[in-house]
Amino acid sequence: MAFGITREELTQWKEAVSRGEIAFITHFWLEPRFLGIHTVTKVGCSNLERLSEWCAANGLDPRYIHNRDPFPHFDLIGAKQIEILRKERLWDQLERFRLL
Questions:
Q1: Are 81 and 88 in contact (CB under 8 A)?
Q2: In the chain, what percentage of residues exceed pLDDT 70?
Q3: Please, are residues 28 and 38 in contact by the beta-carbon 8 Å criterion?
């Protein structure tokens, strides 16, 4: 279950993904398989080659891309999520979701 984002934020992410951009959206998340994890960042891009290259460049295995048409994405959680958000300078998402 996702919560903590607005419809406008989700629409903007979807539009960027559809344009083939690497786009980030973080939201609160409850998933019983991942105890202690309360957020996820979805890194999306409709260009699977570009998303795969982004994953590889960031030490992530492209095999774990969720190839869900029309919004393929890679889910970031935990320490790697924080590392990537810092690298991408997405301070607003780090602060808003208390990941600092």
A1: no
A2: 98
A3: yes
Largest CA distance in the chain: 34
Cα within 13 Å of Cα(52), Cβ side: 6
Side chain identity, residue 76: L
Cα–Cα distance, 62 to 2 (Å, whole number): 23
Give the C-alpha distances (Å, rounded to integers) separating 40 from 49, 53, 79.
Answer: 22, 20, 11
Map tokens 């998402």 to a residue: 93
pTM of the model: 0.93
Q: What pLDDT score does 64 carry?
A: 97
